[in-house]
Design goal:
Elements (H helix, E strand, L loop, with lengths): L1 E5 L2 E3 L5 E8 L7 E7 L6 E6 L4 E3 L7 E6 L4 E6 L8 E8 L4 E3 L4 E3 L6 E2 L3 E5 L2
Parallel strand pairs: 2-13
Antiparallel strand pairs: 1-3, 3-8, 4-5, 4-9, 5-6, 7-8, 9-12, 9-13, 10-11
Length: about 130
């Protein structure tokens, strides 16, 4: 099984990119899909979470990013608008057979350890 994230690139602040996560030997519509990112010197953070029952976004991207399924292409898209320099990172998609969420009493947060399959990442750079 292989996940492949694509669509990264370099844009100016305020610009847009659309990332795509495709899979071989895995029907993505049967899986929960998470997008995560990691910037140099920073810990990995979650970006979005898409399951049959939940669509979640981290506070840092809420209102700017939108995740969607393209079942015809067996892909998951992440539309990123109003990009900021802080969005610069390597973006990874991941797939989970269940619903790997943790609840701290206030918010649900995707649990990276619950994602079985990971793509190799695509670089997003936002700078002027």
């Amino acid at each position: 099984v292989q996940l492949q994230a694509s669509g990264g690139g370099s844009v100016q602040p305020g610009g847009s990119l659309r990332l795509s996560c495709a899979a071989s030997r895995l029907r993505l519509n049967y899986y929960t899909i998470g997008w995560f990112r990691q910037a140099p010197g920073r810990e990995r953070e979650w970006v979005s979470y898409l399951s049959d029952s939940n669509t979640l976004y981290s506070d840092s991207v809420k209102g700017r990013f939108a995740v969607s399924r393209d079942n015809a292409k067996n892909a998951i898209n992440l539309q990123m608008n109003s990009l900021k320099p802080d969005d610069t990172a390597i973006y990874y998609c991941a797939a989970a057979p269940g619903n790997p969420l943790t609840y701290d009493g206030f918010n649900y947060t995707p649990d990276p350890d619950g994602f079985t399959f990971w793509g190799q990442g695509t670089q997003v750079t936002v700078s002027s």
